[in-house]
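Invent a record, attention on tokens:
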Amino acid sequence: MRQHAIKTGFFKVAALAAAICSLQVNAAPLRDVVKGQDTFIGAALETRHLQDKQFAETLAREFNQLTPENEMKWSYLQPERGKFTFDKADKLVDFAQKNNMMVRGHALVWHIQNPDWLDNGDFSKEEMLKIMEEHITAVVSHYKGKVKYWDVVNEALDDNGGWRPTIWYKALGEDYIAKAFEFAHKADPDAILVYNDYSTEGKTPKANAAYRLVKKLKEQGVPIHGIGTQAHLVVGVQPRVADIAANIERIQELGLEFHFTEIDIRMQDPATDRMLQQQANMYEDLAKLTAYYDEVNFFTTWGISDKYSWIPHWFKGYDHGLMFDKQYKEKPAYTAVNKVFADKAAGKFDWEPPAPLADTGRRFEAFISNEAKQAMPLDGDIAKWNDAVFYPFAYNQLGGKDLTLPAESNISGRFALLYDDNTLYGRVERRDDKTVTGNKAQVWENDSVEVFLGFGEEFAQIRALVGEEFAPTAFQADIKNYWSEDGTVLEFSITPKKTKTLSGTTLGFNIALADNDAGPEAGRHAQLYPVPGTNNGWQGHDFGEVFFTAQNTEISDKLKGQVVSFKAEPIEGFDATSAFDLSKWENVYHYPFAFNQLNPINQTPPSQDIIHGTWRVAYSGNTLHGVVHRHDNKTVTSGDDWQTDNIEIFIKVGEEFVQLRSIVGQDFQKNTFPGKRVAKWNEDGTIMQFSIELPVDSLAGKTIDWNIALADNDDGQSRSSQLYPVPGNNTAYLGEQLTILEFVK
């Protein structure tokens, strides 16, 4: 059972009044809303920002905590050895004291923004330890009684969870971390000391490494009191709330606090209403976690207004990451966060974090890699791939809740896998109307192919820009690749050095096709994967699986990837018999029909000119609602029912299984499944809306086994396509190869 602690406190009349006001058009300031909730609503800033009157007023009005963005780092405080300059940082502390704000010191030890004398000095191990001790002692002592919280060590781990090769690690080894905490504690025994890092929100390999680090420090008796996760996120790359909750709970079990320390959620320029709403949803998730858990007492954003954000300087083509725009106007993100804490103050906060999906078996069929029956030179020749199964790049994971694909002429592709002994071979066929590979500062924003392999808790990410070799990686493997001259075909081989054979094994697997059409100064608009997800493959998330077939060998029962669920969210006032109203569905997950299960060796769907479609689902009470958009160059509704153009829905609730079919233009066919249901088509057969009552009291928080298919018959005789959201061999009508539909509260 999930264990948690909900923050409590005595809410004064003023706090309750603020909460009531927050539900009105003009919400009360955030710092007033959270009075009595033991929560710091913070912001990072520089001294120069206070010269902007509107900035200073917004800071004092809305926030009860501040973090010096840069001016407590080494290059500011000790630009010359032994000479400390506290002037700018002192001004921030003075502002905080005058406005009754908590100060978080940031950061005592980091690998960036160090002075030249430190970065380029030739110091012995003993000298480096002394330099660290002198600096930490001087800084923490100077602010003793004024700075309560310190980010003692910042970003000691690399992106894969290994040790970052900083000047401190090279000189002192991993022990420098414990020493830094000990020095800080000695200088101020009352200070709260924290380890801070990015990409550590959930249960990724890096987050797992951070957990192991702080657990080890605790076991060693090191004075550490909390862990900070920065939460520099991206609209469309939705964090797994269940995983963040699970991470918070394991940190809680260590007796440590958990802080959101540097929140911003960037998006590509220009900002759209849809993107701003997606951003608000993500801010809301973090606010709910903060409100729910006692141990989460910091909700700090890395800035106040987009006017002074660091984002455009570090991430070309991105901006708009904060809760206030450049004119200090509140965004939907601010409204969402304010409402969460106002609901908490008014006693109306009844949210609970979703539990991680149980391991209920394989719900997304593994991709198949057959054994190669001939030599596999990397030369682009398609003939050697006759024994391979081709799969589509099916989901655009950069779209947030909209995972549908761009036009196939803009970007599309398919891939296949084979193996020989311990070598994985892959082929990617890519169609793109524009190729961009010139962003050298942010290579992930270029047109590329990325391959992800999972080995237990370890994983490898391997990237090749179009026309280039795979970039060097720490993954121990022999890696080779070939590109055709026009960039339409990639072939590769990966031979892991620690793997003796792939035959009969199953690995975590994913592959991505990135597309940038805006040029080297901008970012990608698409990152296509064969599985749904939130573009977290680079953190070891949202993996599918690959099964390396062998004679008399079946796929392992133990999952090597993550369970993938499709999601239905609450909806109000939906009537399937009324005309389609997009406004009711704009903030609902949107999925494509992606895999043609009628073709066992090429599950890539036909051209979009022939057949393609998308689907959304939602719910109210015990009723499942949905809408299907269908684009077909020819409609056939006569002949055997299953051979017509139709939509089929497969549902299993407990022991009850049903296959529901609606031929284009017609209601669901009759059957004995309990409950009411209706399917309604528009006149031209391009939109079907449906409602299905299920035999449960309420769907909220539940999951069911599910699948949905779009059938296409173009010759009047039999179907040429049966498109599903998952790979398989068209056995859903038997109750097999069903996936999971999760009803989000």
The longest strand covers residues 257-268. The chain has three domains: 13-345, 367-548, 565-743.
